[in-house]
């Protein structure tokens, strides 16, 4: 939700948290998981960024093999 997509800009952290909390209140998603996400937001975001960097490097390396 925080990442840019071709069809929309990424949302700010506070906006995402509000959406997730509302979804939990509506019992669409588990409130405990939402609370864990909020508590560990920084660590999760760092892990996401690192995984994306690794995936981007693998993609570029693979693309070089195709040329």
List the helices and strands and how they pair.
Elements lengths: L12 H13 L5 H9 L1 H26 L1
Helix pairs in contact: 1-2
Which terms would index this structure?
single chain, 67 residues, mainly alpha
Structure description:
This protein is mostly helical and 67 residues long. Helix content is 72%, strand content 0%. It contains 3 helices and no strands. The protein has helices spanning 13-25, 31-39, 41-66. Helix 1 (13-25) packs antiparallel against helix 2 (31-39). The longest helix is centred in the last third of the chain and has 26 residues, at 41-66. It is elongated. The N and C termini lie far apart (34 Å).
Question: In short, what is this structure?
Answer:
The chain has about 70 residues and is mainly α.
CA-based shape: elongated
Report helical residue fraction. over 70%
**Largest sheet descriptor:** none
In whole angstroms, how far apart are the ends?
34 Å
The structure class reads mainly alpha
Count of DSSP strands: 0
Strand content: under 5%
- Number of helix segments? 3
Radius of gyration: 16 Å
Ranges where pLDDT stays below 50 over 5 or more residues in a row are none
